[in-house]
Design goal:
Layout (H helix, E strand, L loop, with lengths): L5 H8 L4 H7 L4 H8 L13 E5 L8 E5 L23 E8 L2 E7 L3 H6 L14 E10 L7 E11 L2 E11 L4 E6 L7 E9 L2 E7 L5 E5 L5 E4 L11 E5 L2 E9 L4 E8 L8 E8 H5 L12 E4 L5 E5 L4 E6 L4 E7 L11 E4 L8 H5 L3 E4 L2 E4 L1
Antiparallel strand pairs: 1-2, 1-21, 3-4, 4-23, 5-6, 6-7, 7-8, 9-10, 10-11, 11-12, 13-14, 14-15, 15-16, 17-18, 18-19, 19-20, 22-23
Length: about 375
């Protein structure tokens, strides 16, 4: 295909699924350049549907990896993260995934390693009797910037509950942490589902009508978005798909239960919400197949299409085409730590110019007690 013009090559490559595209970027330097060109990146399938998941047992590594076809293989992705310094960091916790980067927390085994992980301010993992830093998230958008941010949400205990008191944000551009007092309403409790979109971290909350809290990478803009529907007593998950902020919730009614998907405007001057899809649980799984506690097992939304992913009490990881009302069982996964708020992390390989080569030779970066790898 060397004689074909670039426009035609781009047209052909744009029709490939993400897994094939990942293989074909190794065909030639010219193809790789076309795939990483900002003028063409938006046309390619950047979203291989695959997951890292937390394991319940004490096995090493503490995570597993699975793709949408269940084989657990994605070209050029070292899912075992074998490049990590296992000898100096025997305990590694998976915290988040964002556009090809993984956020990890490492517990160093030696005093020398601990010295390298000295915190700025109080840093990730800070924990004392009245304060904890339980939630951490990653912000990275290679189409906007080669730099990433790490968000650490600090909570204070009051009457046996934890409320957000401050947010610490790390910038890879400055190499420093900043600590800002929470700009959200007092008494905000976190539910733990998070997503990063257009420079803002969005987090689901408890109470407050199941609201979504948002903060930007500078901790200058703070916002609380009311839940699209207050009829559900179950907490939804926040994600993004096709460039829009998405909120997924299960409504339990007298006669049935419905899976409801809303598109929210991430314009921070707008409260617009659009009902995107609504489907009954019976229509998806049948009356005898209702997964117990489904509202807690909607694990992800596909970034490029109207598809949700579930994990049920039968240990099945499933994909659901909401528009077509079809459910596909991907595989059965044993040992998933479904007691975790976020047992699954959707992994999306990045094809941007700044990260393409780094995916071919994975590396890790240590930042003040939290390991980041891509």
């Amino acid at each position: 295909m060397a004689y074909l013009p670039d426009d035609l090559v781009v047209e052909i490559l744009s029709r490939l699924p993400a897994k094939s595209l990942c293989r074909f970027r190794c065909v030639s330097k010219s193809w790789r350049a076309l795939m990483s060109d900002p003028a063409h990146r938006h046309r390619f399938a950047h979203t291989a549907a695959c997951f890292f998941f937390c394991r319940r047992d004490a096995s090493i590594p503490a995570w597993g990896f699975v793709t949408a076809d269940g084989d657990g293989v994605l070209p050029h992705v070292d899912s075992a993260l074998s490049f990590l310094p296992a000898s100096s960091c025997p305990k590694i916790e998976l915290l988040d995934s964002c556009n090809g980067l993984l956020l990890l927390r490492c517990s160093p085994a030696t005093a020398a390693a601990a010295g390298l992980l000295r915190r700025v301010h109080r840093g990730p993992g800070f924990d004392d009797f009245h304060t904890r830093a339980h939630w951490a998230a990653l912000g990275f958008d290679p189409s906007a910037s080669p730099h990433f941010h790490v968000f650490q949400l600090e909570e204070e205990e009051r009457m046996y509950n934890y409320y957000v008191s401050a947010v610490e944000i790390y910038s890879s551009e400055t190499g420093a942490w900043v600590n800002k007092k929470s700009g959200w309403c007092r008494g905000l409790e976190l539910a733990g589902h998070m997503t990063y979109l257009n420079g803002f971290l969005y987090v689901t909350t408890l109470r407050h009508a199941n609201a979504i809290a948002a903060v930007d990478t500078k901790a200058h803009a703070w916002r609380t978005i009311g839940s699209p529907s207050r009829r559900s007593t179950y907490y939804g998950i926040v994600s993004h798909s096709q460039g829009r902020l998405i909120y997924v919730q299960v409504h339990h009614r007298r006669t049935d239960a419905q899976l409801v998907i809303y598109a929210l405007e991430d314009d921070h001057d707008s409260e617009e919400r659009t009902l995107r899809n609504r489907v009954t649980i019976d229509a998806l799984f049948g009356p005898e197949e209702l997964p117990y506690g489904l509202e807690r097992l909607v694990v992800a939304v596909h970034p490029n299409c109207d598809r949700c992913f579930f994990y049920d009490r039968l240990k099945r990881l499933m994909s659901c085409d909401v528009k077509e009302g079809r459910v596909h069982v991907i595989c059965t996964l044993e040992g998933v730590d479904d007691d975790e708020t976020r047992p699954f992390f959707l992994y999306v390989p990045s094809y941007s110019a700044g990260t393409l080569d780094r995916q071919m030779s994975s590396r890790s970066v240590t930042i003040s007690g939290t390991g980041l790898t891509n």
